[in-house]
Amino acid sequence: GRRICMAHVDDIADGHVRAMERGRTGEDYMLAGPQTTLVGVLRLVAELAGGKPPLVMPDAAVGATAALMSVVERGVRVPSIYRSESLRVCRASYLGRSDKAAAELGWFPRDLHTGLAETVEYVMTTAVVVYFSAGYADSIAQDLVGVSLPVWAWWLIIYGAFFALNAWGAEASF
């Protein structure tokens, strides 16, 4: 599949600080974490979060869907994550090597499992999920129907949904 480099945000911040403190003027430093695939990342996140692995759409199907959406989005409002460009990005590889940053700055990112485990632990709180879901929900509402609600209104709606699902016995807590 398509390959990407993933690094924890704290490692990237550390790399920027190291470049400012130790880097040579005029030099560029690639801060690239371990190479992986998007599917590999999503599977690992599901495992770490205790969820089910994602359904994987074959690459050719993603390409065909991107082509279809480029026609659909000309006449119908489509949420940004389903637009043709977003789908095409899923099929690209984004790779880099951090050898120079390691040699000159002493920069080494944590391994993928450790970085994602820390990220999943952070995200797996209801407050964080609701906080970031509000912006996502508002973006979709704006894209689909041109309506925007205040963030606090989305928080109430999403918390209400969690409460209702839990009251009915569904597992929707984080």
Sequence of secondary-structure elements: EHEHHHHHHH
Task: Count the beta strands.
Answer: 2
Shape: globular
Largest sheet: 2 strands, antiparallel
Distance between the termini: 30 Å
Strand arrangement, largest sheet? 1-2
Q: Hey, roughly how much beta strand do the residues contain?
A: under 5%
**Radius of gyration (Å):** 20 Å
* Poorly predicted spans: none
* Structure classification: mainly alpha
Please tally the helical runs, counting DSSP H or I stretches of 4 or more residues: 8
What is the residue-averaged pLDDT?
88
Helix fraction bin: 55-70%
SSE layout:
Blueprint: E1 3-5, H1 9-22, E2 35-37, H2 38-49, H3 59-72, H4 84-90, H5 99-105, H6 112-123, H7 126-145, H8 151-167
Antiparallel strand pairs: 1-2
Helix pairs in contact: 2-6, 3-4, 7-8
